Amino acid sequence: MGHISNDGGLPGLSPCTNTSPSADALRLPLSGDRSARREVLAKPSGNKLRKVGLEINNSQIKRIQMIKHWIIPAVLFLIMGACASTKPPSQQLTQLETSIKQAEQVGAENYAPLELREARKKLEKARELVNEEEYEEAELVAEKAMVDAELAQIKTLSSKSQQAVDQLRESIRVLQEEIRKNINREQN
């Protein structure tokens, strides 16, 4: 901007009186929009001037008011909403425990041991995360564990159904063979 002379003043600048942040500040007039009062408050800093503030025009004031009245409350609302949603996923953990128990009851230990083991490990990990107050991460791990537990149930039920189908087919084959033998005996 310029250098301060030995007497502390700059040519063409007047010291600020009542609007300055300090008694040393200088008012620098700016060219441009004459309908709005625009000026920079400058404060001596070493041998250079440092900008302290700037008065702005009406359209900029309207933007600032919009930000102050609409955008800032909206952002705060979203932040508060995010904080409110970070509570322990206790209901989800209870549902997960129930799902794991159901998988055990249908026999998942014999038909889907890997999936059941993974569901248990992820349940323990989710509990650890809850204890560490990492609720969002705990919720994600619990969701993955739920998928594993449900997969174990489905895989077990599918395997059992397939075994039942295989047994029925074998029974039908044995019955058909018996019927053929009986028909052959009667014909002989």
Polypeptide structure, described:
With 188 residues, the protein is of the alpha+beta class. It folds into 3 domains: 14-54, no CATH class; 57-85; 90-187. It contains 5 helices and 4 strands. Strands 1-2-3-4 form a 4-stranded antiparallel beta sheet, with no helix packed on it. Strand 3 (39-45) and strand 4 form a beta hairpin. Helix 2 packs antiparallel against helix 4, helix 2 (90-105) packs parallel to helix 5 (135-187) and helix 4 runs antiparallel to helix 5. The N and C termini lie far apart (123 Å). Residues 1-42 have low confidence and may be disordered.
Strand content: 5-15%
Radius of gyration: 40 Å
Overall helicity: 55-70%
Task: Give a quick account of the main beta sheet: strands, pairing sense, barrel closure.
Answer: 4 strands, antiparallel
Poorly predicted tracts of residues: 1-42
**SS-based structural class?**
alpha+beta
> What best-fitting shape do the alpha-carbon axes yield?
elongated
Order of helices and strands: EEEEHHHHH
Q: How many extended strands?
A: 4
Q: Please, how many helices? A: 5
- Our measurement of the CA-to-CA distance between the termini, rounded to an integer number of angstroms, reads 123 Å
Total discrete domains: 3
The average pLDDT is 74
Strand order of the largest sheet: 1-2-3-4
Which key terms come to mind for this protein?
4 strands; single chain; elongated; four-stranded antiparallel sheet; 188 residues; disordered N terminus; 63% helix; alpha+beta; 3 domains
